Amino acid sequence: MDDAFVDLLHRNLEHATAFDGRFDDVQDAQRPPVVTVCCSDSRVLQDHIWGNDRPGQLFTCGNIGNRVVEHTHAGEVVSGDVLYPIAHTGTETVVVVGHTGCGAVTAAHADLTDGVDEPPGIERCLDLLTPHLSPGIDALPDDLTRAAAIDRLVEYNVDRQVDALVGSDDVPSAVDVIGVVYDFQDVYSGRRGEVHVINVDGEHDPATLRASHPAIEDRIERLWTY
User: Is residue 207 part of a domain?
Assistant: First the structure.
């Protein structure tokens, strides 16, 4: 057996010791106030980026590209992973978490510009991203490096996922939908690991957001407006 998994088991004992008394209030049900949709990238620590150590506080969803949609016989709909806490646990805030240097956005960019050859499972995921990112690629400034272009498309992707939630009849209008980017590559002005708010309920103009949300104005920052 791989030593990495054995190490995980040892760490789980530490977790179980530390968390032993923290599950008492969530034995019978969960009512998380927030659902997060993160990229399933090993560098994005879905609970830890918020300093969370409370079971029942966050309903976490993860997939490549922090997507909120899926294809069904009815067409493209909001994923049940995201809808479940909204529909059944009283969750009223959704946070879409993109991140700098996103591999899924990088692959989507490559697929749209040069074409890629991926296994069917990965192609299916890219098919959920590329139609939404194509207009963003066309709108990018011509003088960007590839890395800079990808980070701007990360914002564009978060915006599109927020739009899908705000525009869905399955998501009540009372639910707050927030788009953020997690930066561990010194792309934004803050420290490594900071979350930067780029979209609230479909509004993505930084000046408008700062005026509307003064309590978090120092956390509102975008690389790109379009």
Answer: yes
Please indicate, yes or no, if residue 87 is contained in any of the structural domains.
Answer: yes
| CA 68 to each of CA 28, 46, 83, 158, 167: distance values in angstroms, whole numbers, following the listed order | 28, 16, 9, 10, 12
pLDDT value for 74: 86
C-alpha distances in Å from residue 182, one per residue of 17, 79, 194, 219:
30, 22, 6, 11
Span 30-48, average pLDDT: 97
Is 99 labelled as part of a ligand binding site? Answer: yes
Q: How many structural domains does the chain have? A: 1
pLDDT tens for each residue of 59-86: 999 999 999 999 999 899 999 999 999 9
Residue 3 domain flag:
no
Residue 159 lies in a domain: yes
Is 102 known as a binding-site position?
yes
What is the structure's pLDDT at 115?
85
- The enclosing domain of 99 has a CATH number of 3.40.1050.10
Q: What is the pLDDT of residues 109-127, one digit of tens each?
A: 999 998 888 899 999 999 9
Domain carrying residue 100: 34-219
39 is in an annotated binding site: yes
